[in-house]
Amino acid sequence: MDYTLAALKIFSSQLADCTEAPSSEGSSAAQMLNGIRFQRAWIQGVILSADYSEAGDGRLLLDDGSCIVDLFVLPREAEGGYWRPGMYVMVIGPYIAAESNDNYPAIKVHKIVDLSSQPDREAMWYMEVAEAYNLFYLPFSAAASPAPPS
Q1: For 36, phi and psi rounded to 5 degrees?
Q2: How many CB atoms are closer than 10 A to CB 10?
Q3: How do residues 103-139 score in pLDDT, each as one tens digit?
Q4: From residue 67, how far is each of 23, 34, 94, 144, 148 by CA, in Å?
Q5: Which top-level group of life is the source organism from (predicted)?
Q6: Would you say 89 and 53 are in contact if contact means Cβ atoms under 8 Å apart?
Q7: Is 25 a member of any domain?
Q8: Which three-class secondary structure state does DSSP give residue 42?
Q9: Vertex 105, ends 104 and 111: CA angle to 5°?
Q10: Once rounded to an integer, what is the mean pLDDT over residues 51-55?
């Protein structure tokens, strides 16, 4: 994992537009979205369901308002079945297209945080994604795009 690549603040519906990034010697596998190379997505939303296995891992379904995403939670994060339907959470992890089921994008959770106690969490999230897009992603993707023909 290349931690010099930022986790993109995106809506889960945008994961459908991701492509596999071209690999280069010594680089880890990555995704591309609008010309931006990334390894981890940052999304926020409401947990719809939580299913924990006897092996200790968990599978959560999360709705961020744009679509539903499948979350694969490692045993250390799933311990005690803490994550429950109705919680509003922040999730960071790699998009794992090969694991997508039921036409849902899938993320392997590296970090999950309960934000349920934050009163304006959902409205702020939409603003954060829009701000990140306008300040960082749009200028970067415009610079990476070829110039239109004259």
Answers
A1: -105, 125
A2: 24
A3: 788 999 999 999 999 888 888 888 888 888 888 777 6
A4: 29, 19, 17, 28, 32
A5: Eukaryota
A6: no
A7: yes
A8: strand
A9: 125
A10: 83
pLDDT of residue 27: 64
Residue 62 belongs to a domain: yes
Residue 98 belongs to a domain: yes
* Number of structural domains found in the chain: 1
CATH code for the domain in which residue 58 is found = 2.40.50.140
Residue 67 lies in a domain: yes
Residues 17 and 67: beta-carbon distance below 8 Å: no
Domain extent for 65: 7-144
Q: Count CB atoms within 10 A of the CB of residue 137.
A: 19
Which helix (H) or strand (E) covers residue 119, if one does?
A: none
pTM (global) more than 0.85: no
Q: How many alpha carbons fall within 13 Å on the CB side of residue 75? A: 4
Is pLDDT larger for residue 125 or for residue 4? 125
Q: Work out the percent of the chain whose per-residue pLDDT is above 90.
A: 33
